[in-house]
Amino acid sequence: MKKARRPPIEAPPPGAWDALEAIAGDLSGGASEVARALIAWGEGWAAGAPGTGREALVGLERVARRQAALAPVLRVANDLLIELERRDPEDENALRAGVGKTAAVWRQRLDTARDTLRLHLRRALTAVPVVYTYSASSTVQGAIEDHFAGGAWFQVVVSESRPGNEGARLAAALAARGVPVRLGTDAWLWGALEADGALVVGADSLLPTAWVNKVGTRALAARAREIGARVVCAADSSKFLPSALALLPRSYERDPGEILSDPRPPLAVENPYFEEIAWEALDLLVTERGPTRPRDLRSGDIPVARALRDVTGTRRRS
Known about the structure:
Blueprint: H1 16-24, H2 31-46, H3 53-66, H4 71-85, H5 92-124, E1 130-133, H6 138-149, E2 155-159, H7 166-176, E3 181-184, H8 186-192, E4 198-201, E5 205-206, E6 210-214, H9 217-227, E7 230-234, H10 243-246, E8 274-278, E9 284-287, E10 290-291, H11 306-312
Parallel strand pairs: 1-2, 1-4, 2-3, 4-7, 7-9
Antiparallel strand pairs: 5-6, 6-8, 9-10
């Protein structure tokens, strides 16, 4: 007689800390994708996902600090932290309800902005025969797909975007939709730019004096301006960092192991993913409001969570 098999032991569901730690450590997703993952966590926690309020507070602070280079992630984390801090820490139902409400507001805002921004970007691409792009922006990808599906004919030129190769994945996704795409190396893209096209990129953050995108964007923008091609940045206003949050230290560095797995001293490997590009290098900024002047992005002061005030320079409440 065969011994009955025991059913497999299922791992316990991840607590709030584990789920937020995964978001804090996501170094491959774009700003919008990581922000949406954080929003989804908030909705799930509000609906009863495991994790204490204390775990959520600590985890959200970690997300804000680790992902400070991605403006919408920082802003969502800050707002969720404020909801937790303003409520009774012993009233878990109220904590979850507040987080869920804030997450829902952010989801609605991002969904509305995404659809409107794609429409405005499509209008900006009217009669553009070649769209040059770099790295991978979900906004730019969506607008290109919509524009092509609407009957426009144009060609997309993109580079692989090492070391993450997100540009190669973008090229494959667009080609699967029937969009004519040329893919090459990052060094090749600089020489492939021609005056009849437009360099169209996204942004991970919008700052008062610059926008932040994949390292290499600055050189491409300078080359495009030199030969007379337009430089277009497409990003919704959630990517603008108000001054209070812009003070939070931001690291643009990523894992050096992506370049060389086992460097031996005195060799030092650097792997910066992002860089700041001055607004002067830009011809057109497109947001959900349409063509937008960078100075019009500025807003008044916003509340900063107590957990973040020590690093933003804002004095803690006594």
